[in-house]
Amino acid sequence: MSEPMSDDDMLRLEEELRRAARLLDPVPERLVRQARYAYAFHTVDAELAELTFDSLAPEHAGAVRGPAGPRLLTFEAATLTVEIEVDEDGDGLRLTGRISPPRAADVDVRSRDGERTVRADELGRFACDGLAAGPFGVRCRTGEETVVTDWVAI
Amino acid sequence: MILLRAACLAPYDEHPALRTSVVHSDSVSGSVSDPAGDPVGDAFGAPAADALDKRRAEPGGTVSALVNAAARGDATAWEALVERFSQLVWSVIRAHRLSDADVEDVWQVTWFRLTSNLHKIKDPERVGAWLASTARHEALRVIRTNRRVTPVDDLDSVSSWVTHHSPEQAVLDSEQAAAEAERLRRLAEAFDLMPERCRRLLRLLMATPPPSYTEVSEALGMPMGSIGPTRARCLDCLRKIMAGETSKSRHKAR
Fold this sequence. Notes:
The structure holds two protein chains of two kinds.
Chain A: H1 7-24, H2 29-37, E1 47-54, E2 71-76, E3 81-88, E4 93-100, E5 105-111, E6 114-120, E7 125-131, E8 135-141, E9 146-149, E10 152-153
Parallel strand pairs in A: 1-9
Antiparallel strand pairs in A: 1-2, 2-3, 3-4, 4-7, 5-6, 5-8, 8-9, 8-10
Chain B: H1 2-8, H2 16-19, H3 26-29, E1 32-33, E2 39-40, H4 49-52, H5 62-71, H6 75-94, H7 100-117, H8 127-149, H9 167-170, H10 177-193, H11 196-205, H12 213-220, H13 224-242
Antiparallel strand pairs in B: 1-2
Helix pairs in contact in B: 5-6, 6-7, 6-8, 6-11, 7-8, 8-12, 11-13
């Protein structure tokens, strides 16, 4: 029966594993670049609208339609709420959104491909299609404030 | 292939705030980037005595300084955060079995979320734990979503923790290339034979610099008190597999 490992032995083996990970499973440089570029989405002094409802979350799984139905998302900031419905559209994803309390705004729709700006009308309604699946977020600029939703994967 | 080696050595930005905090491994802190971004100097050796104390906390305030600076618009601080925590986030993701596409989604959502949350993190010094927790939740969400639409048995698309780099390619320029490659291969194979729980924990601990116990706890949803004993059991398990002391070693544990 072999003796238990000393602390030194364990640290040495761990360090060997660490080196193996660096050699055999490093972070792909492409992903590191993406992480660096993500900072382009940072807006100083923007308010964060947190995700408060996601129809895909397990606690809502029974209440709404399954994966084939639209995805419903609600983001809440102190001064405004953004509700978004995401649908399959044949050519990508389509999103329909509403800002409340209702007001006009410039809405920057963000995905991994970059940013596209659409206009929300005085009722706070906006839409965007041809969106790629993946990381998704929205920035609303009302003129008085800027609100950024938290990111989700759609 | 040379490009892969460059990525492997994960050079750390020489951001002033980071210089004193990367003390865990001589072989990493000794890697410096030249202007082209390729690492200069390849210091794979035994870790310095400092590195053995991997539970040492960061010098006070360096990480929170970076988080606060990045929140205020300092792009260099952001880049330093990416360099500092890339391997941690990567190892959290790699501790879960995800397809290549899902790996990328989880990675991106994690970092994008940090850009929105820089000013909201309750304890900026522990942003590593925040990143670990975020990556874990995203990975679990993806796994749950996939289970609903894909048969659980469909694991062909799931990449193992070891990607397409072979041990031989990885140690190309080493003087003792053959012996090292052999050792590396045996280590990788033995790793894959460990129980899932051990692979997850050790994959986490394999990040450079090694994660704090808080980060490990957040990454795996594991109570901090059980990390030490589990680590010891798993390293012992790995040692035994490599020494051929267990009959489990003849069958792949999937």
